[in-house]
Amino acid sequence: MKPLWKRAVASSLVLTLIAALCLGCAGPSEEEVIIRIGQITDLTGISSPSLLPLNYAVEDAAKYYNDEGLIPGVEIKIVTYNEQSDYSREVPGYDWVRERGAQIIITLLPTTGEILKPFSDKDKVPLAALGGSMDLVEPPGWQFWFNAPPSHEIRTLLKWISENDWDWETKGPAKIGFAAWEAPYQIELKETLEEYCQDHPEQFQWVGGYLVPIGTPTWAGEVEKLKDCDYIVRGAIAQATGAFVNAFQARGYTTTYIGGSAMTSFRGFIVDFCGWEALDGALTTSVCPWWSETSAIVDLAKTILDRYRPDEAEDMIHAGTGYLGGFHNMLEILEIVQAAIEEVGAENFDSQAFYDAAMNYETTGPLWDGYYPDWSFTETKRYLADHVMIYEWSAEAEDLVRRSDWLPFVTE
Questions:
Q1: What pLDDT score does 116 carry?
Q2: 282 and 198: one domain?
Q3: What's the first-to-final CA gap in the chain, in angstroms?
Q4: Are 96 and 39 in contact (CB under 8 A)?
Q5: Which neighbouring-strand residues pair with 392?
Q6: pTM of the entire predicted model
Q7: What residues are paired with 257 via a beta bridge?
Q8: How many domains are contained in the chain?
Q9: In this predicted model, what pLDDT tens digit does every residue of 324-360 receive, in sequence order?
Q10: Do 226 and 93 fall within a single domain?
Q11: Section 269-284 average pLDDT
């Protein structure tokens, strides 16, 4: 069987939980109300290896809700537009899904949300973002980010490294650098890294940060500039990370790679591309438990994979947290839809109802066992996650191994 990323580039706890979620739920009524959720994503462009599992998770979570009748009398339909990692297609995609009745629009790429933010605010259409940067939610508007700011993740990781992984009091400051394709997520990472190193010169020495045009295939210059780094931060694009790691290894240099939770979403791609030895000891954050751990959502995601995609389940898990993270994000979105319908009724559900329900939402209840409780939005905070865990990439285990409990974000 081909690895998942190659196909993308080429084109009883759980049962108890399900039963609990279905208590009091009647079967679908004869006349169901259809609620359409738009999804603007990349199915065939440079971001598709990372996004394919997320696309599947969005579809499968909606199908699960429909099949189990979790919102009685309602059918959730996903309307998907392929923007092909082409910025010029974002606005046409927004118009396309709206013309087909989408009252909420899921965006997977940070660029998508940032480009559509003014249209979302003007039309009062909620964007439910699975990927983003702080520019998406500052100032706050009709955008809800169901993930974690890369700036907060990397600050939290650097603080943890200074306390647990690098003895700067004995060795002096760790040398740290960055190179990536230029895009909003990577820009936020670079700016945050430079600022953090300036604020903590006794712990980290900023060697340099280099942003190159998207699609740049070679990294020889950046590798030479960063060859003496103790830590090199990776961005959120699978191909760029894989090519850089291979170029660095080919020169015989060694370092520890670190990154945010986006890097865990394409674990399979870079392991297949670079091998475990090249990645051994890498440190990344994650806003959801890893596949090997026990939690209600991990168990439910495995059950849904076996139900809807049995031939692809192994590849989805190998790929990384793309499916798992997308699945838990989509469950959050659907819980908000459910709360809005309970408040206003299915016939009266609209964009405003989703917005109001989102502002009162918290991750609470048995579904969120294993997560840090009670993440929520506020009038000024429109990203949902508030905590993160640290994982180490282990060549010996050929897996990710947890190194920390839930850590509160370091926000400044």
A1: 97
A2: yes
A3: 45
A4: no
A5: 283, 401
A6: 0.90
A7: 232
A8: 2
A9: 999 999 999 999 999 999 999 999 999 999 999 999 9
A10: no
A11: 96
